[in-house]
């Protein structure tokens, strides 16, 4: 679910301008999964730009207030969701915790860092949603300690069908500041890509696996 169309357009434009999102059909990027993709997103770059960082933080707060109401704490997803979540928690005057991708192998062997109590209402902050698998692993960890996850907010989503299905299956509401659809429109309008590029990029979003095999 897109929080606000105007916000989505502005966030997409910001990410393109600071090259947090890169588009390249000719030389696809290889994701950690091995998938070849014409897009690479690193929203951590936004933290280096105070005005953009502030805008994202403020829009996150607006989205949380509008879609989730009263919450008791904010939780970030390691690693890129940690600084974004901490900024949101500070803005809202709420406690902050974060979820590791896996439990520590030493010390207290924690997977969740910070103080959370059973029954607390939380919103999870993520920087990027692709398939949703790692994001929902964090939700599972929170559910295991009886925390009430009201939903998740993210800066950007690729809008892949598999992610939609995964969030529906997990019964977790996802609200994003921007999306692939808004990004492509801004990329065309701003002459970041050509019309031919747009067609290939849309083909990828419809079937990433098939697109990847064609460009290996």
Tell me what the structure shows.
There is one protein chain. This protein has 216 residues and is of the alpha/beta class. The chain has a single domain (5-207), classed as Rossmann fold (3-Layer(aba) Sandwich), CATH 3.40.50.2020. Helix content is 43%, strand content 21%. It is built from eight helices and ten strands. It has helices at 5-17, 50-68, 81-92, 133-143, 161-169, 180-189, 195-206, 208-214; strands at residues 21-23, 29-30, 36-37, 39-41, 73-77, 96-99, 112-113, 121-129, 148-157, 174-179. The strands form three sheets. The protein has a six-stranded mixed beta sheet, with helices on both faces. The longest helix is centred in the first third of the chain and has 19 residues, at 50-68.
Query: Number of helical runs?
Result: 8
Which regions contain 5 or more consecutive residues with pLDDT less than 50? none
Give the H and E element order: HEEEEHEHEEEHEHEHHH
Stated plainly, the CATH topology is called: Rossmann fold
Q: Considering DSSP H and I runs of 4 or more, what fraction of the residues is helical?
A: 40-55%
Strand order of the largest sheet: 7-6-5-8-9-10
Radius of gyration: 17 Å
Which outline best applies? Answer: globular
Mean pLDDT score: 93
Q: Could you give the count of β-strands?
A: 10
Q: Per DSSP, what share of the residues sits in E-state strands of 2 or more residues?
A: 15-25%
CATH class descriptor: Alpha Beta
The number of domains: 1
Distance between the ends: 32 Å
Class of secondary structure makeup: alpha/beta
Largest sheet: 6 strands, mixed
Second rung of CATH, namely the architecture: 3-Layer(aba) Sandwich
